[in-house]
Write a structure and sequence with these properties.
single chain; cytokinin dehydrogenase; cytokinin dehydrogenase activity; 18 helices; eight-stranded antiparallel sheet; six-stranded antiparallel sheet; flavoprotein; binds flavin-adenine dinucleotide; transmembrane; alpha+beta; globular; Vanillyl-alcohol Oxidase, Chain A, domain 3; Uridine Diphospho-n-acetylenolpyruvylglucosamine Reductase, domain 3
Length: 565
């Protein structure tokens, strides 16, 4: 065993640990302490849990047949775990843990909790699609939930019908990607989860730690409103099953809890019969008041054929209509009369809705869509319609991803900013931000805007939303293009605009809350949570008393690194 530890610390870690932990502290003493700490960490994990370690390929081969989790210090693992989709921060962990199941996660966390000196930082990483290092664990261990465990068909649970619930559900691994959940439930009974994100290559645990929203949220609520039960590994290393009636504090606290209370290893997700096809419709507005009035009217409709199933929208400066990465819709195949927009300079708003249908409703879908559109006030002649299979609609952003990857435009910095804005102030937001800070331009990527009904969000969850019956998501999903000729698309310019948007919201008292929040100081977090802060802090103290979990969120003081102590 000692040989393995020696291998671990002599090869790959020496360089990588320097990167984050010991940048600027290059004297031999600091390095010696680092090595001592790593020996301690690894031996603690090995002796407490009996975990195999993979310091190099030869050892990996030797350990190939060993069951249970695997602790890796391979440079490729460390590099992957040290970055995320945002490409804005990099912090390297000491090791990456690949669990085979909940018991492995529990064993690792228990070992970290038991370690003298205040615990070891542990962060679950779903698919690493955070923006600002939320799934990183500088100087600690990243638990690779998504790549570490791929359910074999024989091991996956099947959908279950519950007479009590009056519908189906499925139990899934917390690191499972939503695209895999979808494909599996479709193949087993033609079922699908009810509530989505726009992009499906995100993990169940990752989105449930935030909320998980898309255009269905106005009706079904966010994904966290569509979960019946969780298994959570707490910060003490205990696996706790929780639901509305069983350990409700942990259940609701973990939903939208930013990974602070535990690692979700199993989620029981509500399912519905999946429709076969989707009528996907977009229509343009130049008048913001009419645009938002129509959106709010549509989300107030809750019944059957008299409503759309999905309501979103986005801001399009006329200059960005064609180049926007979500605008492939306005392609030459569509009978688009862009000429009708010639006289519109400045900002336009695009309503996006869908009507689902299957064989039994195919005969009435046109009529239903016509009736719903007939009551809206978009610019005449700007309705664009596509008809496609339900799965293709749900997986639409992945198609954009593939195109961007081809152009080398996916793995670039993403200074994204997501805000929940109360409906009563959305017009002020329009004039202050879209026409003010942004100067009627949408440089850098899509800006989504759509309303949701607060009564579909359970107030017992940890997610923070504005205090109004209706609030909007406004999502600035912009990419900084390295070497861009347009200075407005540089990282610096986009980050400056984000700051200006937040300053405007503060100064104008908009009452916006960040979604996928990123705050730096604890007083900012306290302001974010508002009167919910005391409860959240109490739950943190109860379920993660050493504040070891998801330290990349930067909410609570984390266990000290050896170098700091
Ligand atoms: P990670 O980045 O891996 O983790 C996020 C946080 O959750 C970290 O703090 C991590 O420690 C914690 N965590 C991860 N797994 C677990 C677990 N099993 N248990 C407890 N904590 C855990 N969001 C929406 O709501 N709607 C959208 O439409 C949407 N579209 C997106 C499109 C793209 C292209 C991208 C990049 C992001 C999008 N998001 C959207 C945001 C996304 O939901 C969050 O960033 C989410 O956290 C990403 O999931 P992940 O699995 O990559 O999480």
């Amino acid at each position: 065993m000692q040989e393995e530890i020696d291998l671990v610390i002599s090869e790959p870690l020496a360089g990588s640990v320097q990167y984050e932990m010991f940048r600027g502290q290059r004297n031999g003493w600091a390095m010696a302490r680092c090595l001592v700490f790593m020996v301690f960490l690894v031996s603690c994990l090995i002796s407490t849990v009996g975990l195999p370690v993979e310091p190099a390929d030869e050892v990996a081969m030797q350990l190939g047949g060993v069951g249970g989790g695997r602790l890796s210090v391979e440079p490729s693992d460390l590099t992957e775990a040290s970055r995320d989709f945002g490409r804005l921060t990099m912090s390297e962990p000491l090791a990456v843990f690949h669990p085979r199941g909940a018991e492995d996660v529990a064993a690792l966390v228990k070992a970290a909790y038991a370690s003298p000196g205040g615990g070891i930082r542990v962060s679950a990483r779903g698919h690493g699609h955070s923006i600002s290092g939320q799934a990183q664990a500088p100087g600690g261990v990243v638990v690779d939930m998504s790549h570490g465990w791929r359910a074999e068909a024989a091991e996956r649970a099947l959908p279950v019908y519950s007479p009590d619930l009056g519908g189906h559900y499925i139990d899934v691994w917390g690191g499972e990607l939503w695209i895999d959940v979808l494909n599996w439930t479709l193949a087993h009974g033609g079922l699908a989860p009810r509530s989505w994100t726009d992009y499906l290559y995100l993990s169940v645990g990752g989105t449930l730690s935030n909320a998980g929203i898309s255009g269905q949220a106005f009706h079904h609520g966010p994904q966290i409103s569509n979960v019946y039960e969780l298994d959570v590994v707490t910060g003490k290393g205990e696996v706790v099953t929780c639901s509305e009636s069983n350990n409700p504090d942990l259940f609701f606290g973990a939903l939208g809890g930013l990974g602070q209370l535990g690692i979700i290893t199993r989620a029981r997700i509500a399912l519905e019969p999946a429709p076969h096809r989707v009528r996907w419709i977009r229509a343009l507005y130049s008048n913001f008041t009419e645009f938002t009035a129509d959106q709010e009217r549509l989300i107030s409709l809750q019944h059957g054929s008299r409503r759309f199933e999905y309501v979103e929208g986005f801001v399009v400066a006329a200059e960005g209509l064609i180049n926007n990465w979500r605008s492939s819709f306005f392609s030459p195949q569509n009978p688009v009369k862009l000429s009708s927009l010639k006289h519109h300079s400045g900002v336009l708003y695009c309503l996006e809705v869908t009507k689902n249908y299957d064989d039994s409703t195919a005969g009435t879908v046109d009529q239903d869509v016509e009736a719903l559109l007939g009551e809206l006030n978009f610019i005449p002649g700007t309705v664009f319609t596509t008809d496609l299979p339900y799965v293709d609609f749900l997986d639409r952003v992945h198609k954009a991803e593939l195109k961007l990857r081809d152009k080398g435009m996916w793995e670039v910095p993403h200074p994204w900013l997501n805000l929940f804005v109360p409906a009563s102030r959305i017009a002020d937001f329009d004039s202050g931000v879209f026409r003010g800070v942004l100067g009627s331009r949408t440089a850098g990527g899509p800006i989504l805007i759509y309303p949701m009904n607060k009564h579909k969000w359970d107030p017992r969850s940890s997610v923070v939303t504005p205090e109004e019956d209706v609030f909007y998501l406004v999502a600035f999903l912009r990419s900084a293009v390295p070497g861009a000729t347009d200075p407005a698309k540089s990282l610096e310019a986009l980050e400056r605009q984000n700051r200006e948007i937040l300053e405007f919201c503060d100064e104008a008292g908009i009452g916006a809350k960040q979604y996928l929040p990123n705050h730096k100081a604890q007083r900012e977090w306290e302001a974010h949570f508002g009167e919910r802060w005391a409860r959240f802090a109490r739950l943190k103290a109860e379920f993660d008393p050493r504040a070891m979990l998801a330290t990349g969120q930067g909410i609570f003081d984390s266990p000290p690194l050896l170098a700091e102590s």
